[in-house]
Amino acid sequence: MEPSTGSTVRADGLVRAFGAGTERLTAVDDVSLEIAGGSVVALTGPSGSGKSTLLHLIGAIERADRGRLTVDDVEVTALRRAALARYRQRVGFVFQRYHLLPALTVLDNVIAPVLPLRAGRADHPARARELLAAVGLARRERALPAQLSGGQQQRVAIARALMGRPRLLLADEPTGNLDSTTGAQILDLLLDLRDQHGMTILLATHERAVAARCDRLIRLGDGRIVEDVDLTDGEDPADTFDRATRLRL
Ligand SMILES: Nc1ncnc2c1ncn2[C@@H]1O[C@H](COP(=O)(O)OP(=O)(O)O)[C@@H](O)[C@H]1O
Ligand SMILES: [Mg+2]
Fold first, then answer.
1. Residues 6+ away with beta carbon under 8 Å from 221
2. How far apart are alpha carbons 211 and 213 in whole angstroms?
């Protein structure tokens, strides 16, 4: 598979609020950050702290009320509908509950996001098979999601997210429904994919063992960044136990 470089992400004063009047709640409250291309960043913080909303803003699933989001040289917050749809096509998104289509085979689930695209249509099955092989599911392409374990379903969802050749992969608690061993394997896979494709990965997680293996940890509290730590600072990336104990998760 072709190497590429991961996207750089820059947010300036992003705000997203829900509701009105006394019910108004600022889910993402003036978030500014810069993420280097090719890094793997853990987004942590208690439930309700704004992790999902921030991922949705960066993936343009939701629009910011205020602030600016720039991904590579694209000012996402200034895009209009058609350009926004094209931007979304180029971002990979992985969800906690996989969101596979139950009536479609594994292969068709992987192809699904590019079905509306004419370009390269003849190559889609081959590309999907290549991705299924990359996530270790080459032999299950004809299975239905319900016939797979949770970890396997998440692998299918990851293959699907990669179909559009994203340079940015957003993952919302991708190991949240999995036991710790399976979760660790999913993280191994994401880190391998980053190394092979040079993607930037931003993942929300509650799990200390997952966050500890990322390059950087950003903690949210009430929609704001309350901690931002570089976890690489020259130490052995394999020494996750030490890192995990340093992280108050
Ligand atoms: N669509 C929505 N409508 C109303 N409130 C929302 C909506 N999405 C999120 N919220 C609220 O915004 C806050 C942040 O939520 P969320 O981003 O899901 O946090 P997290 O992913 O960290 O648990 C929460 O208080 C949540 O209830
Ligand atoms: Mg969430």
1. 45, 46, 49
2. 5
State whether the beta carbon of 221 lies less than 6 angstroms from ligand 1.
Answer: no
Does residue 51 have its Cβ closer than 6 Å to ligand 1?
yes
172 alpha carbon – ligand 2 mean position (Å): 7
**Domain covering 9-90+165-246 in this structure, CATH number:** 3.40.50.300
Using one digit for the tens of pLDDT, what is the confidence trace for 42-53?
Answer: 999 999 999 999
Task: Give the count of beta carbons closer than 10 Å to the beta carbon of residue 198.
Answer: 16
DSSP 8-state assignment for residue 19: S
DSSP helix/strand/coil, 218: strand
Domain extent listing, the chain:
9-90+165-246, 103-160
Q: What local confidence, expressed as pLDDT, does residue 104 receive?
A: 96
Grouping H, G, I as helix, E, B as strand and the rest as coil, residue 85 is helix
More confident residue, 96 or 68: 68
Q: Edge-to-edge, what's the strand order for the sheet holding 216-221? A: 91-94, 168-172, 200-204, 40-44, 216-221, 224-230
Nearest CA to ligand 1 atom 26: 48
Sign of CA dihedral 231, 235, 239, 241: negative
pLDDT digit string, tens, across residues 71-109: 999 999 999 999 999 999 889 999 988 899 999 999 999
Q: For residue range 181-214, what is the model confidence (pLDDT) as tens digits?
A: 989 999 999 999 899 888 999 999 989 899 999 9
